[in-house]
Design goal:
The protein is built from ten helices and 18 strands. It has 402 residues and is an alpha+beta fold. Among the domains are: 148 residues, 2-Layer Sandwich (Alpha-Beta Plaits); 113 residues, Alpha-Beta Plaits (2-Layer Sandwich), CATH 3.30.70. The strands form four sheets. A six-stranded mixed β-sheet has the order 2-3-12-7-11-10, sandwiched between helices. The longest helix is centred in the first third of the chain and has 17 residues. The chain starts with 7 loop residues before the first strand and ends with a strand. The mean pLDDT is 89. Pfam families: RT_RNaseH_2, RVT_1.
């Protein structure tokens, strides 16, 4: 899951000081809180200012006795030492500046005689002119078995998040790097640049099973809270409260566990005390679950496809909104038929009519509601010549809601 698709607040926020002696250190809280709620939340966050990291030096790391990352490299796989790639001088400067930061943070160390050796790669960030320095662990990942530790089901997370009066979105400071590499596996993470070879002391991004290791950790930390007062998806944490009065207590419980396990938060990526937010394309509020406007806009502003790639893009965008499309198979069937056709001119009148009908439907998509445990639900079926569709419906105050 990309960082851009994690938990995001969906309302205005304001900055509050965490430390009066260091006014530049601030946290974000919801602007719609009452004056009393703002004071209470500000007081709580200021009393827990030690839970935020402002630099790697504020981050002690998770105790390796609790968890560390193992690679479990298949002994039958021969180590691969990649030949060093050459970069233009300006990119070498970017790489070396990042290496200096990692050394200062204590995340990497110099290494000699490593059998495994990977290259760094530069990946463009969304911010123009900015680059992310990554390590290409393709060869190492091929030699590692897949860790099948399960990630949470996204639909269940979204359903569980909706219907709460207050939410707090939390993100760990350089979360993966708070987990140490196992001593036997550090050298296997070695990479080469122009000035030398280095390996990671902490779990880096790019390793095959890093996400599974992190999910295993947070499941262990918050095992009693998940599904009740918290939801966690890898390094995205959310504290929720069906009643506003319970929110500070739920936060206090979560902060106590974070302190116990020495996990630090990133203040620039945390927002406390809001009533709505976005998660993996869904907009969750106290009222229910909505499709995110950005995903709807992507289809509404799309021109009629003229190539296979453009039709595939349309079907992908429609699939992301599948939960909000009644009889989605019937609505999108002409697009899939077009992809199966042998002729070059795949987009015909049937496709165009279906495309315009889809756009019209998305101008007022339904809101999904959260079922109440124990209530009666109704299953509706729709049968056409090409598909059978179903919808689960609940009734509230005489009205029906999907």
């Amino acid at each position: 899951v990309s960082p851009e698709e994690g938990w995001k607040p969906e309302e205005d926020v304001e900055l509050i000081p965490l430390d009066p002696d260091q006014p530049d250190r601030k946290a974000r809280i919801g602007s719609r809180l009452s004056p009393e709620e703002k004071v209470e939340l500000t007081t709580f966050l200021q009393s827990n200012k030690d839970m935020f990291a402002w630099s790697p030096s504020d981050m002690p790391g998770i105790d390796p006795n609790i968890i560390c990352h193992r690679l479990h490299v298949n002994p039958a796989c021969k180590p691969v030492a990649q030949k060093r790639r050459n970069f233009a001088p300006e990119r070498v400067a970017i790489i070396e500046a990042e290496i200096d930061k990692l050394l200062a943070a204590g995340f990497i160390e110099e290494v000699s005689y490593s059998e495994w050796l990977a290259n760094v790669v530069l990946v463009a960030k969304q911010e123009k002119g900015k680059w992310r320095v990554c390590v290409d662990y393709t060869d190492l990942n091929k030699a590692c078995p897949k860790d099948n530790f399960p990630l949470p089901r996204i639909d269940q997370l979204v359903d569980s998040t909706s219907g709460n009066q207050l939410l707090s979105f939390m993100d760990a400071y350089s979360g993966y790097n708070q987990i140490m590499m196992h001593g036997d596996d550090k050298a296997k993470t070695s990479f080469i640049i122009e000035r030398g070879t280095y390996c990671y002391k902490v779990m880096p991004f790019g390793l095959k099973n890093a996400g599974a290791t992190y999910q295993r950790l947070v499941n262990k930390i918050f095992k009693e809270q998940i599904g009740k007062t918290m939801e966690v998806y890898v390094d995205d944490m959310l504290v929720k409260a069906p009643k506003r009065a319970d929110h500070i207590g739920n936060l206090a419980e979560s902060f106590s566990l974070l302190r116990q396990y020495r996990m630090k938060l990133n203040p620039s990526k945390c927002t406390f005390g809001v009533s709505s937010g976005r998660f993996l394309g869904y907009l969750v509020t106290q009222r229910g679950i909505e499709a995110h406007p950005r995903q709807i806009k992507a289809i509404l502003e799309m021109k009629s496809p003229s190539t296979v790639k453009e039709i595939q893009s349309l079907t992908g965008r429609a699939a992301a909104l599948n939960r909000f499309l009644s009889r989605s198979t019937d609505k999108c069937r002409p697009f899939f038929k077009a992809l199966k056709k042998g002729q070059r001119d795949k987009w015909d009148e049937e496709c165009e009519v279906a495309f315009q009908n889809l756009k019209t439907y998305l101008t007022s998509p339904p809101m999904l509601s959260k079922p109440v445990p124990g209530e009666d639900l109704f299953v509706y079926l729709a049968v056409s010549n090409s598909a059978i569709s179903s919808a689960l419906i609940r009734e509230e105050l005489g009205a029906q809601h999907p």
